[in-house]
Design brief:
With 201 residues, the protein is of the alpha/beta class. It has a five-stranded parallel beta sheet with strand order 2-1-3-4-5, with helices on both faces. Strand 4, helix 5 and strand 5 form a beta-alpha-beta unit. Helix 1 crosses helix 6. Bound molecules: flavin mononucleotide (FMN).
């Protein structure tokens, strides 16, 4: 009988708040994914020691970042996974600083992919898929425009397409999301559905 490989997902908490709105939603998605049989590793960016990119381009030789800190472990976990669930609040129309530091450190991989390995742009073979969760306090139509654009290009670095984005407006204080059980249900269901999608790419 063919052995079915367990789906491995990395869940990244990008907010400085441990129990904030995005963290609560991501926890639900993690719960859904685990209930569907996936193995989920959680990374809380606020607990990592990670320098911002210093733009020294030590990565141009091999694609390896010269700065040695918690980035390497997080990168390797992401690269070894079938899928990534990432949650960040909107901070000034983009991601949190914690999330942005991780994204910028992935420039080393971007350099490897496009400068060293000369991978063509818009590779049609991309099958990996990612889930993104975000919230903002305000309700403007363009609230998520910037963050979604950043996320698409970030995911592309490790050959991932944005499969689903759960975006919620009008949530500001810690615990605000608890007033909307339908958002929590949606996150849970997204976690479940995500495993199905990753199992049948
Ligand atoms: C530094 C900072 C910048 C923010 N910028 C925005 C913003 O540009 N637009 C917005 O709607 N909300 C903004 N907010 C509000 C947060 O998006 C909101 O409080 C959100 O619920 C925080 O999510 P969390 O609990 O997961 O951290 C900002 C909050 C902070 C602390």
């Amino acid at each position: 009988m063919k052995k079915v490989e367990k789906i491995k997902i990395v869940a990244i908490y990008g907010s400085p708040r441990r129990k904030g709105n995005t963290a609560t939603l991501l926890k639900k998605a993690v719960e859904g994914a685990r209930d569907s049989g996936a193995q989920v590793e959680e990374i809380f960016l606020r607990d990592l020691k990670m320098s911002p990119c210093l733009e020294i381009f030590g990565c141009t030789k091999s694609g390896e970042c010269r700065l040695k800190d918690d980035f390497q472990k997080a990168r390797d976990q992401i690269l070894a996974s079938h899928g990534l669930m990432l949650a960040s609040p909107v901070f000034f129309y983009t991601v949190s600083a914690h999330t942005k530091i991780l994204m910028d450190r992935f420039q080393s991989l971007w350099v490897k992919k496009y400068w060293i390995d000369k991978t063509p742009l818009n590779n049609p073979k991309i099958t990996r898929k990612g889930l993104f969760i975000s919230v903002g306090a305000t309700k403007g139509k363009k609230l998520f425009d910037g963050i979604l654009l950043s996320m698409r290009y970030f995911f592309d670095t490790f050959d991932m397409k944005l499969w689903k984005a759960l975006l919620y407006r009008g949530l500001d204080f810690e615990g605000d999301v608890l007033k909307y059980p339908e958002y929590l249900d949606e996150a849970y269901e997204a976690g479940r559905e995500y495993v199905t999608v990753l199992t049948n790419p």
